[in-house]
Amino acid sequence: IQKRWRGYYVRKYIHNYYALKKYLEAISVNNEIVRNELQEYAEMKEKEEKRKDIEKKEKEKKYQARKMHYLLSTEKIAGIYNSPLRKSPDPMELLLRKSKPLSHRQQQMKSPFAYELYDWPTCKRPPTFSTAQPLPPIGRQKPQGPFRDTAEVLQQRYKPLEPTLRVAASINSPLEKAREEMKKEEWRNCIHDNEFLPFSSYHKNEKYDPSIHRSVKYGQETYGIKHFREVQPKKWVADKVSHCIF
């Protein structure tokens, strides 16, 4: 009886099948609404991007037409967009007729639609600096008031630099500078630190320095330093080493 009652109570009040079914139906309806709204938003954004792209292309086309207005046909000579072999003029010819030519200042300006890489600084040629001298001041009357003469003001303004002794002198002392120069000269002239004196007993008492490959922390190999062939005393027939006697 308790088992039947617990099952009935759980199905009725805790895990209600119909309430759960109604909840899932509401979630599916909500998901469908959200999905439709997202689809409409994506379509709207796509249309807006296409419209902006078309407007940008039309604007650039009009700018190019104003820039190339000199290619317009005249009464005597047909332009390149108005070939006599065509049945009707090119659409660019009609656009050239509607547009106004750019002024000289606007032609010197760069197109706002072109992204040119050669504007970036490159190392193909050295930078050019203006070496032109400034124009002399215009001769005019001295203004009324306690003002100095123009020539005197310009002389003070463009006078040469006169640095103080502290600025003109080097940071290092002459002694340190001389030592640095002497070190550089010694390092430049010296070929080898250890002087080699042949046919003398100068190097007789010097200790032999093994190579870097032999002087490792795991120990040195005796082959090549103490002997130059392998010695295996266990395989000897006699206890003594045989020598060749001439």
UniProtKB/TrEMBL annotation:
Key words of the record: Coiled coil
PROSITE patterns assigned: IQ
Superkingdom in the source lineage: Eukaryota
Chain coiled-coil ranges: 31-67
Entry annotated with the keyword Coiled coil: yes
Record's protein name: SPT17 protein
Gene name, Swiss-Prot/TrEMBL: Spata17
